[in-house]
Each structure stands twice: as structure tokens, then as C-alpha cells.
Amino acid sequence: MSDHQVTTPSFDAEELRKKYEKEKSKRLRRDGEGQYMEAAGEFEDFVKDPYVKAPLERDPVTEDVEVAIIGAGFGGLITAIKLRKAGVKSFRMIDEAGDFGGTWYYNRYPGIRCDIESLVYLPYLEEIGIRPKEHYAHGAEIYAHCQTLGRHFDLYKHALFETKATNLAWDEELSRWIIKTSRGDVIRARFVTVSQGPLSKVKLPGIPGIKRFKGKMFHSSRWDYGYTGGDTNGGLVNLATKKVGIIGTGATAVQIIPIAADYAKELYVFQRTPTAVDVRNNRPIDPDWYESLPKGWQQDRMNNFLALLSHKQQDTDLVHDQWTDYWKRIAVLAKEKKQAGSDEDPLAIMQQVDYQKMEELRARIDDVVDDPETAEKLKPWYNYLCKRPLFSDNYLEAFNKPNVFLVDTDGAGVTEITEKGVVANGREYELDCLIFATGFDVAAAAYKVGGYDVVGREGLHIDDKWSNNLKTVHGTQLHGFPNFHIVGGFLQGTTAFNFMHALDIQAEHAVDLIAKCINENIASMEVTSDAEDRWVQQMEENHNMGIQRYFEECTPGFLNNEGDTESKPSFLGGNFGGGTTEYERIIRNWRKECVEDDTAMTRLE
User: Which of 88, 204, 248, 365 has its Cβ near the most Cβ atoms within 10 Å?
Assistant: First the structure.
């Protein structure tokens, strides 16, 4: 991290607006999200599990359980833990991976780290008595934490790993979900929860010639350490004689590039759109301070972080990082405007803060990067939240190394992949290794991510259910699909920058309803069509047009469907617009006051 103080220059808001629009127009493409390909069929090798060395061999399982949990990442783990706490002992967890962890199981690329503070991100720290090493945890530590949760709560005996759910079908006569798997298992479950998260379905760039490249090629979520050497901490010694290219400059690439720069003979970073990178200011967690925290500290810290990022007034900022700094700036300016008697549009206040923040980040690039031409190409020209804000203490510094070459395509992107390398700006760059840091299909529904069919009452396929329009209750339950719960549902549900908080809210919702059914001998619970209509209406009433306009004006990216906000809402525009804290209040009250009216229930005979 630079030791220099960055002074924010003055700026002309209208000129910035014009500049942002100009840069956006360079990047708009007719194919939108169609520019990416699914890692399936002839591209399925990109998503093979590199960590299972000896495939598990077992006989098929046929059993009856109360709950089947599809997915064993954090969503599935939190659901299972809450089930155990509720006294539900009969459940089965199913996951294609070889262990607990979800995205943290698969993503083990060098430099991997969470951008949310570990003390609010890692669940159950207080209960299991673990102190994270640093404020921003390394990926290996997070993966280990998932395994610790599995051991601490005795979940391994409930898990079927290296097992892909292929079909979930409701049996009306049995009032059970029949789950079939890739291993021939038949599991009859009274309830199902699904938790395939947004960072699971790999996206590949649809660049012509992708199969022609003769060198080594892989996606960042399936890193090949057999080729590079080393591990998540570095040590990529096999790259010392290699020319390496990386496509993508988002959250993953920002972490990989500084490590790869230390080892590669030559590193070529192919950039379509620069990224906004702030300082992370990572540091060890003081053991004495940690031990002094009062009982209940983690939930208080999570609530405080969520509140600040939801524009809720707080007496203190417990996390005090770059995330909360941005939203506190908005709150301070809004308060100043109000005290001055101004009735300014909240979005205009947010935009003023946004311009200032981005000017600071662009000034920081000049401060850190030695070469003025490279620094200019690294500057992002869009609003702060158009892409997920990123943090690093060594990304920009990597471009000062003599073996690192920024290939800026001025919005055009890479145009072709050849046998020898990559074509960009009309030039072929010969490479030995090509890495795709192109992310995931974050807006895909859980069943699409997991690659399984879901068939509800009377043979209703979920694709047909959603063929015309999306209808749910709270983004977690569907009419026609009894005893079916989505944990991690952001489509008509909620999300949060600390996604763990959203998972916790929806896991609690699912488990409370499941426990109610078990305790009250309810065979099936299904939300009504009228309840769906009311939730859709509530979604419309709470739809934040300001936020929608914000993302419509953004440079293309996954948050605005690559610039297409007409065919479907932006990623955040598809959420409940009242915010995560209000969403949590609504569904908690719904469980207390509305569940009887909004569901159809059948009792056990």
C-alpha cells in the first residue's frame, strides 16, 4: 500500500458524466450476456474437480429423511447447523464437490481472499471459539473454516460428497420429494432446501478460437497447480519460463495478478474495462483485543455492518473499513444537506459522493503506478458501485514490475484466440499459458447452477413455472412446490455485500418453517398463488427506480446484465427494493402473522 496521502482534485460533475457515458458506449455489445459460454459439453473439462485424486466409491443410498439439503457450501452448512439447533436430526446433504465449502472448495487460486471482514463473514466464530488470523481472511483459511463447521456440528455423517443431484420431484401421494442423484441414490425427503450460490456457475468468454489454443488453459476457479507449482500463497515456480496471459480484471484477477507477477517470465493482463481498486489495509487480528470482545459481539458486528450499508444511522462503526466509509460519506452529506434546508434527491447526494470517491481512486493510481501511460489506462470511468468495489494492497503495484504488461483494449476486449496465443488490438500475443478470470453466472437460479430438474405438484417443471414471469414469495418459496425452500435466493429475495448475512436470514426462515411443520404434524406447506401475487406487488411498490437508473447508466457488467436492463432488471434491481434489514423484518413478521393465511397446509393422518 502506498504511504503517500492522496489529495482529491476538484472535478466537474457534468464532464465526468459525459466521460462515463462515452466509456460505457465503447463497451456495449449486441450479444450482451451471450458473449459468455457455459462450461458444459465440449467445455466441461474447464469445471472438472482437480482436487479429487481418487474418486469416491460407494453403493447407492436409498433412504427416507426429513430434510434434503442440496448444496454444502455456506448456505447448506448454515441450514444444516440451524436444523440441528432446532432439534432436527434427520437430514441429508448432497454436493458434487469432494468436501464442504462450495465456492471456497473450488476456488483455490493464488492470492484468494475475501473482501468482507472475516469477523462478519465467517459464521459461528464466537460459538466454536476460533480467531481468524487477519481482518480479511485468506481463501485457505475460509475453506478450513467450512471443514471446521462440518466437524464441530457433526455434519460429515450427513453428507454425500462427489454426488450430483439430478432430479427433484414431488410425490403427492407420499408428500415427499424424491431426489435422484448421479450415483443412483434415491432419497425421499419431506422437505428440500437448495443452496447453489451466485459464485458457482462458471462463465467462459465466447472468444472465437478458444479450442484452438495449444498451450495450457484453465479457468481461475479450477487452478492447475500441477502446471504452475505452488499453492494459494504463491510459489508458482513453474511459471519462471512461461509467458502467461490472464483475461479478466475483476475481483479474481485483482488477487491473482500480484502473485503471478512475482513468478511468471512475462505476464500479460488483457483488460477490457479497468477496475476500481481501493486499499484493503489488511492486518493481523490482535489476540488480546479479540479475547476482550463481549458475548454476542459477532451478531452485533454483523448487524452494525449491514445497517451502515443500508443507510441506517449507527452510533459507531464497528468494522470501519472502505465499505462503511463510502456509505458513511453519503449519510454525512445527506445530513449536511438536510441541516442546510436542502431537499436534494438522495440519488443526487449519492452521485456527488460517488464522483468524489472515484476521483480519489483515480488519483491513487497516479500515486502508485510509475508509468503515466499505464496509470491512465488503469483508470476506471464509471460509478463506484457499477462493479463490485475491490480492495488490494498490491494490485496496482504489480504494474510497476518489468515483466508485467497491461494490454488495454479500450473496451473492445480480446478478439481471437489462436494456436499460439491471444489477439488483441490487432496483434497476436504468443503465450504458454492462458487463464480465464471471467467469473460466474451470478444471476442463475439455484437449479440452473446445480444442473438438476425440479418438478412440483402435477408434474409442473420449474422452467414452466417461470416461463412467463418470475413469481415467488420472498424469493424463497413457490406455489406448486410444497416444502421447497431456496436459501440464498436473491431473485425477488435479498442479497447483501456480506452475502453471509443474507444466507443466515433465509436459512433461519426455512428452518423455522420446517420446524413448525414437524412440531405441528403438518405434512406439506405450500404458498398460495395469491401470496405470490401480493409479494410481486410488494416488490413493485418497493422497487427503487433510482437504483435501477443508476445501473442502467453503468458500464456493462454482471450487475446490469452487460448493459441490458430492458429484457430483465439489473442484478440488484431484481431484489426486494426495501433493503436487507427491511426484508428480514418482513419475513420474520410473515412467519409470525401471515403464514396461516398465505399457505395451504395438509396435516399428517
Answer: 248
State the cell numbers at 565. 436492463
Strands (E), 6-71: 36-38, 62-70
Please, what is the angle between helix 346-368 and helix 545-552, to 10°?
40
Mean pLDDT of 586-604: 95
The per-residue pLDDT for 572 is: 56
Determine the pLDDT at residue 570: 54
SS3 of residue 355 by DSSP: helix
User: What nine digits make up the cell of 329?
Assistant: 460519506
Protein fold of 62-201+443-526: FAD/NAD(P)-binding domain (3.50.50)
| Other Cβ atoms within 10 Å of 122 Cβ, number | 23
Q: Say whether pLDDT at 60 is over 60.
A: yes
Quote the cell numbers at residue 294: 463481549
Q: Which CATH number fits domain 13-30+203-280+349-436: 3.40.50.720, 3.50.30.10, 3.40.50.2300, 3.50.50.60?
A: 3.50.50.60
Residues in the chain: 605
DSSP string, 315-341: S--SS-SHHHHHHHHHHHHHHHHHHTT
Q: In whole angstroms, what is the distance from residue 65 CA to residue 81 CA?
A: 16
Burial category of 320 from C-beta neighbours within 10 Å (exposed 0-12, middle 13-18, buried 19 and up): middle
Which pLDDT does position 9 carry in this prediction?
57
Indicate if 62-201+443-526 has the same CATH topology as 13-30+203-280+349-436.
Answer: yes
Q: Where are the domains of the chain?
A: 13-30+203-280+349-436, 62-201+443-526
Bridge pairing between strands 186-194 and 62-70: parallel
The set of cell numbers assigned to 287 is: 489476540
Give 11-57 pLDDT, tens digit per residue. 899 999 999 999 999 999 888 888 888 888 899 999 999 999 888 89
